[in-house]
Amino acid sequence: MSKPEEIQKKKYEPFQNPKGVHDILPADQEFYTYIKKVVRHRARQAGFRRITTPIFEFAEVFNRSIGAGSDIVSKEMYVFEDKKGRSLALKPESTAPVVRSYIQNNMNQWPQPVLLFYIEPHFRYDRPQKGRYRQFWQFGFEIIGESDPALDAQLIQLAIKIHGDLGIADFFSLQLNTIGTPESRKKYAGILQDYYVGKERSLCEDCKVRLGINPLRLLDCKAEDCQILAQMAPQMRDYLDKESLEFHEELKGYLDEIEIPYVENQRLVRGLDYYSKTVFEFWDKEEGAQNAVGGGGRYDGLVELMGGQPTPAVGYAAGIERIIANMKREKIRVPSKDELHVFVAQLGNEAKKKCLNLIEDMRESGIKTMGALGKGSINIQLRIADKFKVPYSVIIGITEVREGVAIIRDMKKGVQETVKMDKVVPKLVKLIGEKNLDRYTPGELLYS
Questions:
Q1: Multiple choice CATH, 342-445, 3.90.1200.10, 3.30.750.24, 3.40.50.800, 3.40.605.10
Q2: Helix axes 205-213, 182-196, angle to 10 degrees
Q3: What is the edge-to-edge ordering of all strands in the sheet holding 79-81?
Q4: Is the pTM of this model over 0.70?
Q5: Which fold is adopted by the domain 26-181+241-329?
Q6: Using one digit for the tens of pLDDT, what is the confidence trace for 251-299?
């Protein structure tokens, strides 16, 4: 067998996507689109403006902000070198990049506080499981430039509004805590390390490492033995500074005023080193932290840590895949604009030529249209129309071209009528209904 024949005979194995990532197919895109629209709507209502930071940053952005001892930096970041040997990382979260942008673009000169939101893909080398992927999407909000517990309350309220819009608010409880200032936290960390002396054998392997680097992380470990020890550990609240405790009490007062229930959870610490004072998460009422959909807190020292002037801030982020998983679990349907209105069937080249302008006119009128495909018989094309579940078909054959007409067929009722070619679009607009058309103007696109 000659070489060209060998190449022709070679059978290629189909590719699979890498473990931990997934294709977002059209049915799931409807969920993503709906969630993004809800987030954009609520963000605009509250005065937030959208920001997009790069997919990758210098790795030091995360090493410095998140903390070298965190699981994200030590285990989960995708780090690589560019051609000049500089260490870069795919972003595992967006708060640090937003703060980097705040400093780099002199946003401290803008009216304060600066309200920003994002809807972005993120990357972590994590163990794939339900609702957890190595490439995942988050939406988030950052309020930078003001320290006021009323802002923390408003941010929590905004998250709950979004959960309500998506139909999942009743399935999650707000877990709330204060972790104080870095100074008081450092003091408490020493108390914790003393408490765990002699108990190291009962800790999981991760917590044995955390004990010397970030002992607070032992409080929210999910391993059973670690949870038992954490329940008996000294209470953080007993070692916090007066200012943080007063800030927390004021926040609870605001939440009570707007009737947002919460669970005081003194073991909630969050997994990122930059948090201070307020921390919160939304936990599944049945599955707990294992199915949390989002969380956030205050990070008053991060801007200074990243090289800016001392600037208070608070933020929140939620996982879109986790939200979608919960929406599916509760069988929540989202509105779809992807259904077609009309399939155009034709027979012969002259009919196909006539269809091209007609299809474009229908689309410009807001009628979602496809068709004029291939050279199959009318019956074959109508079977295709059935598969697309269109309510109407337009049929143009040799006779219709000669007479300047088209047949409009109601696919559900099985009845049809013949109309003049220039009346096809107005007739379909009437049948489909103005409210169902997918119409827009270029001006409206600016605000979509």
A1: 3.40.50.800
A2: 130
A3: 56-58, 87-90, 79-81
A4: yes
A5: BirA Bifunctional Protein; domain 2 (3.30.930)
A6: 999 999 999 999 999 888 876 778 899 999 999 998 877 788 999 999 9
